[in-house]
Amino acid sequence: MFLQQLINSITLGGIYSLVAVGYTLVYGVLSLTNFSHGAIYTWGGYLAFTVMAYMHLPFAAALVGSIILTAMLGFVVERVGYYPMRKSPLESQMVGIVAISIILDNAAMLIYGSAAKPFPTIPVPKAFSIGSVEISLLQVLIILLALGIMSFLFLLVYRTKVGTSMRATSLDVDAARLMGINVERVRLLTFCLSAALAASAGSMIGAYYGSVVYTMGYGIVIKAFVIAILGGMGNVVGAMLGGLLIGVIETFGGAYISSGWKDAFVYIVLILVLLFKPNGLLGTFVQEKG
């Protein structure tokens, strides 16, 4: 039972990590609490569903197609929705973010309908056993994909010039400009990258649970917020670890205590972190950027 739940929690935690990393990237580089991230995640799931259900392409093509198309959606949202508001008061920005999220969710509902859509089955063997533990090859695929994407992102952020520009912009926008960094381009790239990560997570969760629905982003964006706080807002590694930790807490809490309380456990963790370590597990205190 324990090992079975551990595999389940790692699978779910890997997906949560992808969502949370994209969320925390936008906060770190753009200083923006992106509550439209859940709607973008929903579109990632729907686009993967579209490629598989209507174009009859395999999951690999659907995943890549969803990532590319959702990154393009992120480009449009950033240029049309966020860029014009960049100098507005924080309250106005937050209202605009919520409005964009509602527009995206309702657009998905109008196009695909309000009922859940059955995600096409991926042709892999159902499961194999290791002792009493059953592991589906889909779980293995999701875990490997999540690890691969997060490894690529880690190398991008910490081992490339693009990543250096992103981290410099996150630390001090004015100093980054003085060093010749095109801050607006870095912000746009970050938003598109965040959308791509949300798309990969939305595609995987659709395949894992076997359906997509226009409300699927409502809960995930709050969990991404909790995970970002848990790991330290703006901390990529913290978001990766926080996603896995929340996956473990939610899965084991639902299995050993009550499945009806599994979401509540996430918020209990949030309260405890805010009380005892408000900067997150890997976060450090920084002054508010001007």
Q: What do these coordinates show?
A:
The chain is mainly α and 290 residues long. It has one domain. The protein is built from 11 helices and 4 strands, in the order ααααβββααααβααα. The strands form 2 sheets. Strands 1-4 form a two-stranded antiparallel sheet. Helix 1 (2-30) packs antiparallel against helix 10 (236-256). The longest helix has 29 residues, at 2-30. The model is unreliable at 285-290 (pLDDT under 50).
What's the SSE blueprint?
Layout: H1 2-30, H2 37-54, H3 59-82, H4 90-112, E1 117-118, E2 128-130, E3 133-135, H5 137-159, H6 161-171, H7 173-178, H8 183-209, E4 211-212, H9 216-231, H10 236-256, H11 262-276
Antiparallel strand pairs: 1-4, 2-3
Treating each run of at least 4 consecutive H or I residues as one helix, how many helices?
A: 11
Using only CA atoms, what is the Rg?
19 Å
Unreliable segments of 5+ consecutive residues: 285-290
What's the order of the H and E elements?
HHHHEEEHHHHEHHH
Helical content class: over 70%
Instruction: State the total count of DSSP E strands.
Output: 4
For the largest beta-sheet, the strand count, sense and barrel status come to: 2 strands, antiparallel
Give the domain tally.
1
Q: Could you tell me the mean pLDDT?
A: 89
Instruction: Give me the secondary-structure category.
Output: mainly alpha
Terminus-to-terminus distance: 51 Å
Strand order of the largest sheet: 1-4
- The backbone outline, from C-alpha atoms, is globular
Approximately how much beta-strand content do the residues carry?
under 5%
